[in-house]
Amino acid sequence: MSETPTSWPTPRKFAGAGPLRGTIRVPGDKSISHRTLMLGALAVGKTTIRGLLEGEDVLATAAAMRAMGAIIERSEDGVWSVRGVGVGGLLQPVQALDMGNSGTSTRLLMGLIASHGITATFIGDASLSGRPMGRVIEPLSEMGAEITASRPEIGGGTLPLMVRGSLPAVPITYRLPVASAQVKSAVLLAGLNTPGITTVIEPVPTRDHSERMLKGFGADLSVEEADGVRTIRIRGEAELTARDIEVPGDPSSAAFFIVAALTVPGSDLIIENVGLNPTRAGIVTVLRAMGGNIEPLNQREVGGEPVADLRVRHSALTGIEVDPALAPSMIDEFPVLFVAASVASGRTTTSGLEELRVKESDRLTAMATALQAIGARVTETEDGLLIDGTGGELLAGGGPITTHLDHRIAMSMAIAGLVSRDGVEVDDTRPIATSFPTFETMLSERAS
Ligand code: S3P
């Protein structure tokens, strides 16, 4: 989504139309897709990428890397190639980098630019322009970057902002004050072109795709774990070597179809090639604890990440108290978990979810309001939702639901439509294209 809307809101009603059956394959992982383009653009040689997510967020990263000198192409059969500039070789972009809706592109690229001798301006859509950037501005400034942001009173600054990189940057040891893979990755990526060793201390583990992939591209990176605290060290002025990458399917996208198959009676669906990195698989743990029948088949490794096909069958779900320690491993899956909880029996309690308030929208308020509007029994607390489920009965339905430029609100409420009597109208489906452009087609076809 760009700052100037190029199309009108596209409302749509989603309603139940029978069980989900057969086999589907969700698109590539968004987090991994961003990182392959970024590291490919910094490597020496030609990286090829199969299974790249062709969603707007990832395309924003591709455009930014092109604007800084990488040559990025897509073949007719969907294989991407990236010819990198080498660490230290990023060029000054001529125009502002338009990050659209993508927080990951913004924060990780701010890190990359922070240790290059270039200056870049970041702009984004209304949702992204309201999100806090202080969390990356703080460590990157410590490393020497000069960052000028709008509205410093909102979360330490928002877009539009300008980053003037520091050459050389200063290596730091940074203890993450918030469990955020984006902040961790921003510092590690800045560390790539910083002399000496940059250290990130992570008291609560978050998705580790950056660490895995940096190692895969040949960076000197070590991870030490003691009492649950991870210390990650990267040696700077690294040389990265191009490689061939296959991106596994996105568990965050699979989650919508997992919840759909669990809650729509008669469903028996196989979702192929789902990434099951333990730092991402919390949703499967929680849905299983609620009684969900999710069976991993054909477990294997794809692109250095654990992957399986998931067989998901309709199940009677029971509400549980979700352990807040699981939150980082399913941070993007709470909106759709709330939908599952709305039709489970008994109460589901969630807490420790303050971070959901600073995603593409305030996902606690957005989901509480949306679910209440379609007849679910939901109470919003400061840091979570309490949901008393229907025990398998359909929700009433209704709408239009306000999606607040948030793809995951739109898709979660589409799934809620499948378990409603009258269907659920979503006010705007356009944001879905940021992460899962084929969602609506796959949902109408149900299975191949
Ligand atoms: C992401 C990290 C998470 C997640 C986002 C993708 C990443 O954000 O919500 O969708 O690719 O590193 P935070 O780091 O803000 O938790």
Keywords:
EPSP_synthase_CS, 448 residues, four-stranded mixed β-sheet, UDP-n-acetylglucosamine1-carboxyvinyl-transferase, Chain, binds shikimate-3-phosphate, 25% strand, 3-phosphoshikimate 1-carboxyvinyltransferase activity, 2 domains
How would you describe what is shown here?
The chain is α+β, with helices and mostly antiparallel strands. It contains twelve helices and 22 strands. The protein has two domains: 5-28 and 248-446, Enolpyruvate transferase domain (UDP-n-acetylglucosamine1-carboxyvinyl-transferase, Chain); 30-246, Alpha-beta prism (UDP-n-acetylglucosamine1-carboxyvinyl-transferase, Chain), CATH 3.65.10. The strands form six sheets. The chain has a four-stranded mixed sheet. A four-stranded mixed sheet has the order 4-5-3-14, with helices on one face. Strands 6-7-9-8 form a four-stranded mixed sheet. Strand 8 (146-150) and strand 9 form a beta hairpin. It is globular, with a radius of gyration of 21 Å. The structure holds shikimate-3-phosphate.
Layout of strands and helices, then pairs:
Blueprint: E1 12-14, E2 21-25, H1 30-42, E3 46-50, H2 56-67, E4 71-74, E5 80-83, E6 97-98, H3 103-114, E7 119-123, H4 134-142, E8 146-150, E9 158-164, E10 173-175, H5 181-192, E11 197-202, H6 209-216, E12 221-226, E13 229-235, E14 244-246, H7 251-263, E15 268-275, H8 282-289, E16 293-302, E17 305-313, H9 334-342, E18 347-349, H10 363-373, E19 377-380, E20 385-388, E21 398-401, H11 407-418, E22 424-426, H12 439-445
Domain Enolpyruvate transferase: 17-442
Binding site for phosphoenolpyruvate: 30, 103, 131, 182, 363, 408
Catalytic activity: 3-phosphoshikimate + phosphoenolpyruvate = 5-O-(1-carboxyvinyl)-3-phosphoshikimate + phosphate
